[in-house]
């Protein structure tokens, strides 16, 4: 990591969608982010990774009900830590971030990730901060060959470009107020976040056609989007394959627990 890297504010997205979450219901907890994963509440591992990293100055947890975390013995430490602030989360991620930028004056730069990013590690944060530093917008992605080489049974949502098939790693860098327009577009397509082509199309016909005809690399496409919007937009191609494995489905939790168990074993065993 660069020695001059700015100290960022981390945003941990811990909200929940309306209705009953089947994962939370099966685990007997009120919200998904309190589900025990490898013996610890899901939110705890990414929160601790963020707070332990030298690039992170403080942590803002966005959630609809902060009391759930303060009242749960497994997560009460979050409410007690002076570096942690809870703020209300709206119905969508993008809208909540815009509200934060417009209403409270976001403390840029922001490093945004999700509370189900259980495998978030210091190595991931080292790479991401080093490569995102100075950008207006940086997006972490993992190329399919890298993931499948280690976890061939893992299922992700992929976008195909000239430089490979890519899946999101749920880590974003928002370097300054110029990212607001990009987040506003994200808000428009948020309901279709699993439909990659609608997201690409929102940034204009040139980018869409380039992606469909595979004329653009993902790196080149992001740079072009950035130039069109008057900002520096970058891809951070994550080296750890685990960066795009989040706890979204029961199979994901099984895989995450297997990875955590393997990493906890003494070397040589």
From TrEMBL:
Assigned keywords, A-Z: Magnesium, Membrane, Nucleotidyltransferase, Transferase, Transmembrane, Transmembrane helix
Residues annotated as transmembrane: 197-218
A GO term, aspect molecular function: nucleotidyltransferase activity
Residues annotated as domain MobA-like NTP transferase: 32-168
Pfam families found in the cross-reference section: NTP_transf_3
Protein name (database record): GTP:adenosylcobinamide-phosphate guanylyltransferase
Organism, scientific name: Sphingobium fontiphilum
């Amino acid at each position: 990591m660069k020695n001059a890297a700015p100290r960022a504010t981390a945003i941990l997205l811990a909200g929940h969608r309306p209705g009953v979450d089947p994962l939370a219901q099966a685990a007997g907890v009120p919200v998904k982010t309190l589900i025990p994963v490898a013996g610890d509440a899901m939110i705890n591992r990414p929160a601790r990774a963020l707070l332990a990293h030298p690039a992170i100055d403080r942590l803002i947890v966005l959630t609809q009900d902060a009391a759930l975390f303060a009242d749960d013995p497994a997560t009460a430490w979050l409410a007690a830590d002076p570096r942690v602030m809870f703020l209300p989360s709206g119905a969508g991620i993008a809208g909540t971030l815009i509200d934060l930028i417009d209403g409270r004056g976001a403390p840029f730069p922001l490093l945004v990730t999700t509370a189900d990013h259980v495998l978030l590690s210091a190595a991931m944060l080292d790479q991401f901060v080093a490569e995102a530093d100075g950008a207006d917008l940086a997006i972490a992605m993992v190329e399919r060959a890298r993931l499948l080489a280690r976890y061939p049974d893992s299922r992700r949502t992929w976008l195909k470009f000239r430089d490979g098939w890519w899946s999101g790693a749920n880590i974003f860098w928002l370097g300054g107020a110029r990212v607001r327009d990009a987040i506003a577009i994200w808000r428009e397509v948020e309901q279709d976040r699993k439909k990659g082509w609608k997201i690409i199309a929102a940034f204009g016909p040139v980018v869409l056609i380039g992606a469909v005809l595979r004329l653009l690399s993902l790196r080149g496409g992001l740079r072009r989007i950035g130039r069109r919007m008057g900002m520096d937009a970058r891809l951070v191609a994550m080296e750890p394959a685990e960066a795009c494995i989040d706890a979204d489905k029961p199979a994901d939790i099984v895989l995450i627990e297997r990875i955590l168990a393997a990493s906890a074993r003494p070397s040589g065993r």
